[in-house]
Amino acid sequence: MYKIVHYINQFYAGIGGEDHADVPPAKMAEIPAVSKAFNAAFKGEAEIVATIYCGDSYFAENTDKALNEICEMIKAENPDMVIAGPAFNAGRYGFAAGNVAAAVKAQLGIPTLTGMYEENPGTDYKSKTIIVPTKNSAAGMRDAVAKMAPLALKLAKGEELGPYYVEGYMYTGIRKNLFEEERGAKRAVDMMLKKLAGEPFITEFPMPNFDRVAPNPPVADITKAKIALCTSGGIVPKGNPDHIESSSASHYGKYDIEGVQYLTSETYQTAHGGYDPVYANEDPNRVLPVDVMRDLEREGKIGSLHRYFYATVGNGTAVANAKKFAAEYAQELKADGVDAVILTST
Amino acid sequence: MCTVTPISLTVGANRIVPTIAIPHPLGNPALDHDEEKKLRRRLVEKALKALQTPIDDQTIFE
Asked: Is the dihedral of CA A107, A113, A118, A122 positive or negative?
């Protein structure tokens, strides 16, 4: 029989509601109704051997301390897996359940599972544990237990879970290699036919969520503006001194172009591996227009060209990385008094 | 400045200037050097114009 530890909040532990949300973590003397519901669903294959609770406010206000204590209690039970929640749409409970599930998995190497409503802020942990979508209130308990119990059993047995759309947990964003029976071309055409027919289909590569920002006000006087050049086209000094990867770039480069009037094939090149590099290597101004910017600077059409340009390779580069690069060098550009940026992409 | 402007729209760029081709967005190897630089200048000037234009939403400056 597989051993499972259950994490819940003070409410499901029967301690009380909001007025008792400040209770520290503790192990229950006897497992509560919610744990018993899971045990019934396991049909003798697994058993919740201990239930640990913590007040939601206590957890939110003392997260690190509470996590340590909870992890220690769970470790002492030596379980095969851990269930947290379900938390439905309770925000602090979801935060605690997601946190406990993520920490137990990361620190103790024990598989974990939680459940909550899709809008619960605790769903931020969906890449760090397995989260089953539930209804938004405790009225959905029976449904949540029915969905969570089979997955909990699989995890307790050390079985690999199938993809999220088969098993019914939330999309984790983690890709795994697997062998498909049909070749890619056939799968793509099948998907297209379904799409054309208005039938549901599941993409094999969901697009990331891109954010939107309000447009900045225009530059008041371009003839006084300091303008910087940035590129995702991989323009770097010859030899690619920072070793920016030709795809899936993990970093960017910052290059001094003081006194550089134009880029040449002897001094610059592209590091990009996703387009034919012949034209950019022949004349890197085709990607990063330093020559024209210098002319405009000389003619007083712009204030000045910023002394540094920033470059990375936008070829399969993770959106999260690209965002991190720009967040970092945008601060430098601001500190350097740059008024506007021209970003070229290939 | 980007050739595949639908991607610029998808990723959320606000001021977008369409360019020539993926491997040479600001150039055209079929032209001679001076003509090519003139083309590049026209594109950069378009970008400068975009930077000076008030907008409320994502805009492609054709």
From this structure: negative
